Amino acid sequence: MDSALIPKGVKRCPTWQFVLWIGAVSGVLLWGVVAMVLIYFKGLNQTNMNNAYGFALWIWADLAVIALGGGAFFTGFLRYLVGKDELKNIVNYAVLVGFCCYVSALMILGFDIGQPLRGWFIFWHANVHSMLTEVAFCLSAYLGVLTIEYIPLILENRQINKVPFFHHLAHNMHEIMAVFAATGAFLSFFHQGSLGGVPGVLFARPFGYRTGVFVWPWTFFLFTWSAAACGPCFTIFITKLTEKIVGKKLVKDNVIELLAKISGWMLTGYIIAKIIDTVYWATVTAPSKGFAFMDFYTNNPGSIYGIWILIAEIGICGVIPAAILITDRGRKSKTALWLAVLLAIIGVCLNRWVMVLQVLAVPVLSFESWFTYFPSWQEIATTILPVALGTIVVSLSYRYLPVFPQERELNPYEPAADDVLEPETQELAEAELKPAQA
Amino acid sequence: MKHEKAKKFGMVIDLDKCTGCGTCMVACMAENNVPFREDDTDKLISVAWMRVYRLTNGKPFPHTEECFLPRPCMQCEGHDGHSPCVSVCPATATDYDMSTGIVSQIYTRCFGCRYCMAACPYHVRQFNWWDPLWPEKMTESLNPDVSVRMRGVVEKCSFCIHRYQTATQKANLEGRRELEEDEYQTACTQACPAGAITFGDLNNPGHAVHQMVKPDPNHGGRPKNPKAFRLLERLGTNPKVYYLSSRKWVRRAGDNYIRQEGSQNHS
């Protein structure tokens, strides 16, 4: 039914199957929309946040999706600025996943403020000393960059590309994409960093506070570094997951392995820096505020914030994936690669959780005790809502846009007679995939 | 016209006198139109600008001791007005007034991101999780000098700043630039039946608060009086609320110490 929209030379599942899939995901989306309506109309009393837990699941989700979406800026940086040409075969998908992640982040930020209609105050009454201001400006600007990077892909849809204006626009946008990749890398450095600065500057919260250089705490650099290291892991993970779901290979192994190798070395560097930071914080910064290292990991209900969390974050989800990804054998083994990217993703999410939730859970006044929190269903549903939305965007993009330039080569397919293009459009169709390969 | 010296309003709470009666909390709520709910038992989602903590020395009977500690906003100066909450607010909805030393909150500008709450280690900043609703007749007793806050914004103790504004206007009309000590007093100070709370200008050597704690201007106002302490002194927040106690365990409870530091602090 929709074969005229599907890129030439590739096979997609039957329309009914696709509609069923989108319908199922839309059901989840609807659940999130119900929760969203409740939150917008009844307020944040629909959550389980409280005066001790002013930041909770949503802020964690924000920080996590932005870290995972870091694959977009770093892959773009490697492809367009460093000149890693092989990555042209995955950069479209990295941009698409990044776009979904950043839309999710802004959407969640929209729920998370008590007065949503005043959200624009962050731009209008901006306090330049606040890390959150920097986050808001760079995040919005970078979403703009991602949109610009995503548009040419949309214009390459088989029908849209028949319009000469859109065809040439897509081509010309690709020509200048390096400028946007550079802008994206610059903006990402600052917003990933300023997200790290959010807990790092809290000098009255000894668990989150870090010393640093000039106005930037060390977490500023660690967050950027970890996003550049783990973001590509998420790109690989989503690519592999897509391949599993659609049942065919979409990106050649050498491309995945190159990205995995770079990610592995970035992760190695990051983990070394993180260990140094943790040791300095535990032995110098925290004691100067009157806290022993283990004060942050003991006497909390159910050992939710036991020392296990640090071991899991740095050791299991940091050192192990780094060790796998920097070895040729590790990258070539399917199981090891899956394990490594999964651990790296969990590790960066755990880091964001700790740097938001544990900062607030730790009692600072000596006569207070640990604070506990479990999200309400409305918080969970609204956190899943952008995931469902992202799934729909990715599904539509995969079906109707030439996201993977190597797909035709990896999956030779004889089109049905009615799928063959009319002769007059043949010329444009031949040029169809060229910009994506440029 | 001669420019008057900047003030630094502060509070001294004598914990030896505090009985934990809670009058300060009630007076504060009435004065500042602090909203409440029918069931306000969950203190983590209720609003109270002044809150009284109960501290114990952790020893078994018969050596058990208790202390009540009222906690208003600490009005932190940090370093040069770089208080924990002010510097993080993305919309400049809170400000450190260098002329009074009071941390303000602009309710109509706050958009409820709650970053200031995350920054404050004293939990003095509280969020309006619910619409502020009072029983019908009670709205007539609301203080017209204090604006009520809407759902979705953060609020906190203001050291009854509206009283300072009223007193200053009155003094100006009378041709005076300076206020007498008793012309500007917070509601909790006046309500305390035990006289445990003293309020005034820490920069003015003639004021009781200055004489009681002897703030050291070279160390961010750290008290020279050995019986005085501030909450979480080591964090560098430089609060302007001081506590007095003759009991060592109470003074130690005001801060955190690692084991190796022994008991030499605040002896």
Describe this structure in words.
The complex is a heterodimer of chains A (438) and B (267). Chain A has a single domain, classed as Up-down Bundle (Formate dehydrogenase/DMSO reductase fold), CATH 1.20.1630.10. Chain A is 67% helix and 1% strand. Chain A is built from 17 helices and 2 strands. Chain A is globular and about 75 Å long. Chain B has a single domain, classed as Alpha-Beta Plaits (2-Layer Sandwich), CATH 3.30.70.20. In chain B, a hairpin with a 5-residue loop joins β9 and β10. The termini of chain B are far apart. In chain B, 45% of the residues are buried. The model of chain B has no long low-confidence stretch (mean pLDDT 94). Chains A and B meet through α5 and α6 of A and α2 and β6 of B.
How far apart are the termini of chain B?
Answer: 47 Å
Structural class of chain B: alpha+beta
**Remind me, CATH topology of chain A?**
Formate dehydrogenase/DMSO reductase fold
Q: What's the story with the biggest beta sheet of chain B?
A: 4 strands, mixed
Write down how many β-strands of chain A occur, each being a DSSP E stretch of 2 or more residues: 2
Share of residues in strands of chain B: 15-25%
Mean pLDDT of chain A: 92
Largest sheet of chain A: 2 strands, antiparallel
Number of domain modules of chain A: 1
